[in-house]
Amino acid sequence: MDIDWAALGSVFGVSLGVSVGLVVLFSLGIAALSHRERAAEQGGGGGALAVTGACVCFAACAAAVAYGIHLIVA
């Protein structure tokens, strides 16, 4: 039995990159929702843009997860 170390390394690298990317994207969505809450407390505007940004971040996370499930099931 031979282990293809190059393939194992590339799978590890891609998995690490995608995992970190999803965490950062989800964190940006949470930060956008937090910004909306702070703007609402201060009575200012800008909440609609923050909600739109959060929705885009969460939709991208959901799309990445759905694509990953598609790759596993298919």
Count all strands and give the number: 0
Helix content: over 70%
Classification by helices and strands: mainly alpha
- Multimerization status: single chain
**How far from one another are the termini?**
27 Å
Biggest sheet descriptor = none
Order of helices and strands: HH
What fraction strand? under 5%
List the domain count as a whole number. Answer: 1
Keywords: Membrane, Transmembrane, Transmembrane helix
Transmembrane segments: 6-33, 45-69
Protein name: Secreted protein
Give the structure's gist in a few sentences.
By secondary structure, the protein is mostly helical. It is built from two helices and no strands. The protein has one domain.
Please explain how this structure is put together.
- The protein has one domain.
- The protein is built from two helices and no strands.
- The longest helix has 38 residues.
- The two termini are 27 Å apart.
- It has 74 residues and is mainly alpha-helical.
